[in-house]
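Exercise 7.
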Amino acid sequence: MSNHRVRATRTATALAAVALTLALAPAAHAADAPAAPGPGELAAARSATQQPAVIDQLGHFFARKGVPPTQRLGISAADEARAATAAAPRLTGDTVPVYTLSAAFVAGRAGTPVAEVEFTATTAVAADGQRASVWTARQGGGWRVVNIASGGDETDYAAAAAADGGTAFREPQLDAWYELKDGRVLPLDEDARRSVGAHGTTVAAYQRLVHQRYGDKLPGSAYDASGKAGGFETAAPGTGAAPLLTAGAAVGITVLAGAALGLRRRRARIAY
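Solution. The predicted structure, written as tokens, is:
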């Protein structure tokens, strides 16, 4: 075969390989991306946060400035009620889905997105500038408020990732927030930077990383069966009979809880 024919054959082979890579790349990225809830679901979640009882709880939440109702506030009930009214809580911005690292992705199940919707979040603000995140989850065929957390991490990180064309998700075991974009996992906070570096990593490398961290702690594992730290919980937030309204969220609902994992809690969970 002449050198010209050899070069032509190699060029054709290379172009075919490039074409195959380009054809497969969108599918790979689509598999990485979590499924988003539809507009109707988000509207229903938003409606749940607008109920008068929730707005009243928000007023007391802001009036107590994060002090749980099981602890004395140092003021009378009447003063708290007046402060709750003065807080004049209002909802602001969009209700957004909050994505959390998927146990199936950790396990390496083929075609599994990196993260999945765990709940939705809506920002609430008080007259004095305090902010809170109102969590809603689907329960019994409808949406219910299951948590109130101080600050606005959930909506802030979602907005930051969306502005960059990506999707925010969290690895609650580390309290780390990431952006998923173009087949890469990028850091959104300091915890994530310590996890994947300042420039992030590929989805494949991240999967190997989280499998190394949590692969032996998934549901059904010996770790889970032993009851140590509860295993890798997959239950939706607030699955009890009553809504869970708290002064602050734990590092995550889907958590590998316990000191054995060196879990750092950002906020304490306190039931209202």
